[in-house]
Design brief:
By secondary structure, the chain is mostly beta strands. The chain has no helices and eight strands.
Length: about 80
């Protein structure tokens, strides 16, 4: 979930091959993406590529075992991490 405070939960552990769905519960647009801001290259492909409107969602399937730092491209002070085991 993406809300006014950031990502909730901020850190998520999943297994390789699982999909994470980011749901925008904020009243503003959000843009989930991989670190590092602004290039999003640490976990290639993990980038919504455009703002997610309030009530909208973005999903990404994580196939590689690694840690993927994430941030809101529109507010890069909000960040977290997807840990793929």
């Amino acid at each position: 979930e993406m809300n006014p405070s950031g990502f909730s939960p901020a850190n998520v552990t999943i297994k390789a091959g699982e999909t994470v769905k980011f749901v925008n519960k904020d009243t503003k647009n959000r843009w989930p993406a991989s670190g590092v801001h602004p290039t999003h290259q640490l976990c290639p492909g993990f980038d919504a590529l455009k703002p997610v409107p309030p009530g909208g969602s973005y999903s990404f399937k994580f196939t590689e075992k690694k840690e993927c730092p994430m941030h809101d491209h529109l507010n890069p002070t909000q960040f977290g991490k997807i840990i793929v085991e």
